[in-house]
Write the structure tokens for this entry.
Amino acid sequence: MLEAVRSGVAGRTPEWASRLRPSLDADTRFAYKLLLPAFLMMAIIHFLPIGWGFYISFVELDAQFISKWWTAPVVGLENYAKIFDPSTIVGAEFWSSLKQTVIFTAGSVVGIYTLGLGTALLLNEDFRGNLIARTLVLIPWIAPAVPAVLTWQMMFRSDTGIINHLLRSAGLVEGTFFWLIGPRSIVAITVVWTWQNFPWATIMLYAGLQSIPEQLYEAAETDGAGRWEKFRYITLPQLKPVSVVIVLLLTVWSFINFTVPYILLGSNPSDSGQVLMLFIYNYAFSNWSFGLGAAMSTVLFLVAMVLAYAYYRRIIGGEFDGGAI
Amino acid sequence: MLGSAGTDEAAEGRVPSELRLTKAGRELLVTAVSRFALGLILVFALFPIWMMVMNSFKPRSAVMTENPSLVPRTFHPSNYVEMWSRFPLVEYFTNSLIIASATTVVSLLVASLAAYAFSRYDFPGKSKLELSILGTQMIPGVLILLPMYLLFINVQIHVGLPMKDTYHGLVFLYSTFTVPFAIWMLRGYFDTIPEALEEAARIDGCTRLGALFRVVMPLAAPGIAATGMFVFLMAFNEVLFASVLGSENVTPFAIGIQQFETQSQTYWGQMMAASTVATVPLLLLFVLFQKPIVAGLTTGSVKE
């Protein structure tokens, strides 16, 4: 019925006219009204702060200007020059944390996707207790994050943690072995982040596996394809669209993750575990250096946006149609 | 043991014939290996939750030992009593419940309207608006946090309305983060409800909004409940904004629980007891209502 109304309108008026006067259509007006509250909120909390943050990245804003932010001196690109110059203290730390963020993201995405795919494949078979296994596997993703990460912190303790105890019993490590300080702290945050998110990849890939038509496998079997051939030439290509979305979202999420490194490593992490989000947070709020913090946030945002754009291209490519974010 | 088919011969041409398995034998082996692998994954998934619950029943000496055990050697439930008196933990729980519940109500209401518009209507700028909804998921929190801090402080100073460390400040902030997510999820549910039902309601004299609240929302109730659970979790788990904008007066559980970690020592047993109290009821709820939640997550995620 709606379609008929709309096409009727479009038939009578030229397209440019209907674009100029969209309010003519009662349905359209209703739709905009429905969207208004959501977009009003987003304008205040998302769009305004992004513009504001962008402005702050060009001023020298410290503690004395907090209540009179508009009087802070404009310094142009100086903040950006500082964070990109590796010879300054903040620049050196910025590059180092950017590098750690990239390593963390790459490790996490590979880990989460591989584990998620493996789990989805194992669950994509009929056996007793399948539903129970599918429910249990989601638990890391459902469990409240802070208590879960604190538990990991307890397990990762060098002297009294269960992980080192098990590794020592297996003869894999000797003496004190630090996870939460020093070069292995990046391993610790990657493991915990992987643990928390592989269930999401599993459920997405499981849905993807379920939607592969059975006939494809039957046809391949008649052609004499084995287990590996079926996986390589049917499963993987069929999972490609959903995989692209998963990998892109995981990349962005890993890039901007805060909770896991913050809770696991605290406010003063070793360089190895100092990812960009954590560094910006600590730098901005311990030195009250909002200008530099905003400049670094803007860079982080631009990187995330480039990734998001790739995600968007994928969606309008028509291969993905919404669903869970 | 003879190879069962020509393809098997080709695939295993280099394997000595006495090591070759029949097709049925190989199937059995593959099944056994995959069940074992799945078992290992489940152990990995559940191990921290297990340790959380088990350590909540251990006395301090049994946690802080170089020889930690997988199950408590003595049953020590006093952590569950002592934890309440160390900090205002009841208050933290209450704060979190208030903030997360209010966030859930506000965002479900706002998001239902928007999701319905996206699901049923076609209007100029639709794809751009949808894109901006998705785009908000890519914004790093710190980028918002710095201006939000300034906004809250300045509203407080210049308008006189307290925002920092208030319930309404956090609820408003969190709702905005959860609304885009909720729109996306609810839209998937609304799409599955046949449009004919609303048309019938409209003919019977229902308004557009009436049709949404009286026909569509009741039908989408399981989906709304599942979305609500995720919104609640997001608000309950948030630490970045809470640590700066809500660390006093309205301290939520996610921030308050970190106080078990003091400069001199960490009260692990009590921290794990508090964690268990926050985690286990929620997991039980999830296990009970698993079906609509999981279905909702994957609705429309892959084009058929």
